[in-house]
C-alpha cells in the first residue's frame, strides 16, 4: 500500500539530495516534500520536476529561524493527511564556517551555539511542529543524521568540540522523542543514523586523511544505506537506538 508522504530536510545537496532523488524515484509515497534555504536550492529541486514518478513539493526552511520551522511544518500539514517519514539531513561541522576545533584555543561560544542550533535543536523543533502529522501515520519514522563522533562512549581522540557536542545533544533529543512518540503511536520509530564517511562538500577537506581509515561512500550509496535501515525499521526493534550505515549499533 502506498504511503502518504515523506519529508527530506536539507534536500538540495549531498546526502539530502541523494535521499530526495531516491525517495521520489520509488513508488512508496504519494508525494515527497523537500526543504530548501536559498533560491539556488529551490532551482535544484525544481530541476527534478517531471523526472520522477513521485511528485516533489518544495518547502522553504531556515533551521536557524524558529518562525521558519513553524511555517514549514504548517505548510506541510496543510498538504498531506499524514507524514510517514521525516529525515533531517541538515548539518554543519561548526558554526560561522570555521573548521572543527582541534584544541581549546579554537573554541568560540558563538560557533558552538550555532552548531547546537543547526545539528540538534532543529530536529527537536521540526518534530514539535510535525507531531500531529507524524502521529497520523500508521507507522511513522523520524531519522536524524547523527555521527559516530557524537558517541560519548566511542570518543577516544577528543577535539571537534562543537560537532561532537551537537551530535551528542541530537542523540539525546532523538532518544527522548523515541520514548514520548512511542507512547502516542506504538508503531513509531525514531532513529539516529551515522551515515558513514560520504563524499560531500562538508567532508571534502578531510577525505584524504579519512581514506586511510574509512571506506568513502558516494552520496547515492549513503542514501541507499540509510533507506535500507528505514525500510527495516518496521520489522526490527530500531526505535530509540543509534545505528551505523552498515546496520551495526553504535553505543550512545
What does this structure look like?
The protein is α/β, with parallel strands linked by helices. It is 41% helix and 15% strand. The protein is built from 7 helices and 7 strands, in the order βαβαβαβαβαβααβ. Helix 1 crosses helix 7, helix 3 (66-79) runs parallel beside helix 4 and helix 4 (109-135) runs parallel beside helix 5 (161-184). The radius of gyration is 17 Å and the shape is globular.
Describe the largest sheet: 7 strands, parallel
- Report helical residue fraction: 40-55%
Class computed from helices, strands and strand pairing: alpha/beta
Beta content: 15-25%
Weakly predicted, low-confidence segments: none
Report the strand count: 7
Mean pLDDT: 92
Cα distance, first to last residue? 35 Å
Order of helices and strands: EHEHEHEHEHEHHE
* Gyration radius, rounded: 17 Å
Neighbour order of strands in the largest sheet:
3-2-1-4-5-6-7
List the total number of helices.
Answer: 7
Shape: globular
Compact summary:
By secondary structure, this protein is α/β, with parallel strands linked by helices.
Key attributes of the depicted protein:
252 residues; single chain; 7 helices
Summarize the SSE layout with pairings:
Elements: E1 3-9, H1 14-25, E2 29-36, H2 39-46, E3 56-60, H3 66-79, E4 85-88, H4 109-135, E5 141-145, H5 161-184, E6 189-194, H6 207-210, H7 219-232, E7 241-244
Parallel strand pairs: 1-2, 1-4, 2-3, 4-5, 5-6, 6-7
Helix pairs in contact: 1-7, 3-4, 4-5
